[in-house]
Amino acid sequence: MRSVFITAMLLASGAFAQTAAGLDGVWVRGGGGGRGGPTTQWSPDALAFTPAGQKQLEANKPGKGPRAVVPAFGNDPMGGANPPGLYRTLVYNRAFETVQLPGRIVQLFEWAKTWRVIWMDGRPVPDDIPEGPYWYGYSVGKWEGDTLVVQTMALDERAWFDEWGTPISPDAKVEERWRRVSKDKMELVIKVTDPTFYVKPWVSDPKVYTLQPKGELIEMIFAPMDEIQFNNRIRDPAAGKK
């Protein structure tokens, strides 16, 4: 009887380990992970900028966060219906689906109805991507135990790092560490290395995503024609801008 009980416990433990390691499913950020700090939504700490980084930070005029201006007088790239980019998407509260396939992991984003590929076929992380930069970067990943470690580079500097206008340079490289911490929770911690804009590498606080067992992605596209109409009818009149 005891051996049956032990076997059952081992099987249950193994099943949970497999579930915890897998990242498949539809996820939404929430249920922990902090709300950002004085500089960025990604970290509670004030970031140390180089002179070039500080200049770019001040040049970015967001409509949200501690440096917010009236949106009509800002310069948020999304005000022209441009893509949000990878890390602004990941810190935003919109659903995405992770699908593990042979040799790659694909993340499908509801926001802007786009995707990114994480290459898992054993290729090395390149020194450079001449074809880039890309709004969603170029990513290579591998498993370290139950943690998916992703190296992302070739990010388009025009994409803000979050909704608060946190900048990155073309030299930015980001390490992502994804881990399923329970049946319905997944955690992401990133490390940003960008010597052009930041005095030293910085690490985010953990961002927590909650599994949506019955979740389905919907279409959410910011079409330029819709954005122009919104700006002309609502955003600009509300700010008294003509």
Helix/strand order, N-terminal first:
HEHHEEEEEEEEEH
Q: Which strands sit side by side, in order, in the main sheet?
A: 1-2-3-4-5-6-7-8-10
Strand percent estimate: 25-35%
Radius of gyration: 20 Å
The count of domains is 1
Query: How many extended strands?
Result: 10
The termini sit apart by: 80 Å
Residue stretches low in confidence (pLDDT < 50, at least 5 long) are 1-20
The level of helicity is 10-25%
Characterization of this structure:
It is a single chain. This protein has one domain (23-238). The chain has helices at 2-21, 51-59, 86-91, 224-238; strands at 25-29, 96-101, 104-109, 114-119, 138-144, 147-153, 173-182, 185-193, 202-203, 207-211. A nine-stranded mixed β-barrel has the order 1-2-3-4-5-6-7-8-10. The chain is globular, with a radius of gyration of 20 Å. The chain contains four helices and ten strands. With 242 residues, it is an alpha+beta fold. Strand 8 and strand 9 (202-203) form a beta hairpin. Helices cover 21% and strands 26% of the residues.
Give a nutshell description of this structure.
The protein is of the alpha+beta class and 242 residues long. The chain has 4 helices and 10 strands, in the order αβααβββββββββα. It is 21% helix and 26% strand.
Could you give the topology of this structure?
Elements: H1 2-21, E1 25-29, H2 51-59, H3 86-91, E2 96-101, E3 104-109, E4 114-119, E5 138-144, E6 147-153, E7 173-182, E8 185-193, E9 202-203, E10 207-211, H4 224-238
Parallel strand pairs: 4-5
Antiparallel strand pairs: 1-2, 1-10, 2-3, 3-4, 5-6, 6-7, 7-8, 8-9, 8-10
